[in-house]
Design brief:
The protein contains six helices and eleven strands. By secondary structure, it is of the alpha+beta class. The chain has two domains: 62 residues, Fructose-1,6-Bisphosphatase, Chain A, domain 1, CATH 3.30.540.10; 121 residues, D-Maltodextrin-Binding Protein, domain 2.
């Protein structure tokens, strides 16, 4: 099955913001075997053969190398918010521990998922159901092939869960973000008396 998103970042494009992606992924059974996310305006293609991940620019392929050095974390603020009120991506931006360790960014395109694999972002977080999702299939495949840590927002395997996505360049960044998410979820449960 092909999962194709011909224009991810539609609203960005509609207002003249050229942060968009063209995503395509081939899924055979439960495995994504090949995938690509293209940035048509930067003339870059992030791609994977399922084993390694690369960036093609100016006709040359470079292997992707994730890095958390930037501390930049993309947080998707587009609905639906399936995990509310237990988890709020918007609230994460205001958490003291988040601000002490990371710098939030919001570009509203899954191109940012590929940026994690390329070392341009430390992590990416979104809420929602990602199973067989045309927006995220290629980015998840790229990040896995590049060696990123990829789970749902509760730390579960992303292919079997309907609850969001955390992609991080390394385990330390992933663990720190999951701790913040868990703290938010448990704090909201205590506040509501659950």
């Amino acid at each position: 099955m092909w999962l194709v998103d011909p224009l991810c970042g539609t609203l960005n494009y509609a207002v003249g913001n050229m942060l968009v992606a063209v995503n395509a992924a081939l899924r055979i059974g439960s495995a994504t075997t090949v995938a690509a996310s293209a940035d048509p305006f930067a003339d870059e293609v992030f791609w994977t053969d399922g084993r390694s991940a690369y960036l093609r620019s100016d006709g040359t392929d470079q292997q992707l190398c994730p890095s958390a050095e930037s501390r930049l974390v993309e947080v998707n603020l587009d609905p639906p918010f399936q995990n509310a009120p237990g988890f709020s991506a918007a609230q994460l931006h205001a958490e003291t521990e988040f601000v002490e360790h990371f710098r939030a960014r919001v570009v509203s395109t899954t191109l940012a998922v590929a940026w994690v694999a390329a070392g341009r972002r430390a992590a990416y977080i979104t809420d929602g159901d990602l199973r067989e999702n045309v927006h995220f299939a290629s980015g998840i495949a790229l990040c896995r092939a590049a060696g990123c840590v990829v789970t749902g927002i509760a730390g579960q395997h992303v292919d079997t869960a309907a609850s969001g996505l955390v992609v991080a360049a390394d385990q330390q960044t992933h663990d720190a973000l999951l701790a913040l998410i868990r703290s938010q979820r448990s704090g909201r449960q205590l506040a509501s008396g659950i």
